[in-house]
Amino acid sequence: MSLLFEMHDVEKSYAVGHGPRTSLFGRRAPRRLKALDGVRLDIAAGDSVALVGESGSGKSTLVRLMLGLEPPSDGRLRYRQAEFGTLDAAGRQRFAREVAFIYQNARGSMNPRLRVRDILIEPLRLYKICPPADEAARVAALLQRVGLSAALADRFPAELSGGQVRRVAVARALAGEPTTLVADESVAGLDVSVQAQLLNLLRDLCRDMGLTLVFITHDLGVASYLCQRVAVMYLGRIVEEGPTAEVMARPLHPYTRALMQAFPSFERPLKASLAGEIPSPIDLPQGCRFASRCPDVRAACRLEDPVLTRRTDADTRTVACLFPLND
Length: 327
Ligand SMILES: Nc1ncnc2c1ncn2[C@@H]1O[C@H](COP(=O)(O)OP(=O)(O)OP(=O)(O)O)[C@@H](O)[C@H]1O
Known about the structure:
The protein is an alpha/beta fold. The protein has helices at about 60-65, 90-100, 115-125, 135-145, 160-175, 190-210, 220-225, 245-250, 255-260, 265-275; strands at about 5-20, 30-45, 50, 75-80, 80-85, 100, 180-185, 210-215, 230-235, 235-245, 310, 320. The protein has a domain at about 35-250: Rossmann fold, CATH 3.40.50. About 30% of the residues lie in helices and about 25% in strands. The chain has an 8-stranded mixed sheet, with helices on both faces. The longest helix is centred in the middle third of the chain and has 18 residues, at about 190-210. The protein binds adenosine-5'-triphosphate.
């Protein structure tokens, strides 16, 4: 099994102003927000992994780090066994070609003055995919690949429906012949039947082309439809990770169970079902960060910070809980 991404104890913190003065002339200590704190995740070629968690849990930050858009503050983040920081210009270009990102706001990510043809030709030229004489045929093939007619090549983004513009975004991502797609809820905000068609498309593409997929979602239904594995995030950390079907059938972490109870989409129901405050990422508590909301909390949970571990070597799942469920 060849590992594409290896993340070990990855941290990302941001400076967010200063704390109070400790004395009349004392300096105010800088305050830092921990967006990611000890993230561990390996992604192998051909994996499909859903990142799920409430708003603010760190999903987008993790993806920005995985795409090399920001460096981690600490920890190890490798792509094909190389640290990002050590990639030379050629290595970075190879990475940018191999790992394609599909923006959540597909329309906003396109130059409104370019026709679809030119939007697709850009990556073909950037990555020298084909000679200029073959570009028109490539554009037609890409449009066909995502279920659009070649005639759409003449249109501007504003002349496309929401579903069509998402398909063009997928075609643009495929133009550089990537091995990995990273997508941020690329179906949110569409009507249900268009959503279903786009999910089918992504699933078929990944299966037929052997692509690796990393998909951010708030919707466990989408996660289970699209991804074989799921990583559940809470306050900057992965608290449970494993095969989606197993995690959903038998959650080990009380937070995953709460997500399951709020199934399929948990953002609002979760706030109602989990009592207790979410700690501030600027001032994380001692012990387990879920303790303040956990229905099964015990005294030890407020003292010891559980790390993400595999309970036996044969286990397909990891969990960060001192007292996992179903044990
Ligand atoms: N540039 C930044 N400066 C300061 N804080 C940041 C920055 N980027 C993210 N954060 C903070 O980091 C935490 C994680 O944010 P992130 O956007 O990664 O969460 P998310 O799970 O993707 O949320 P959503 O589902 O709403 O997109 C949040 O508390 C957020 O406010």
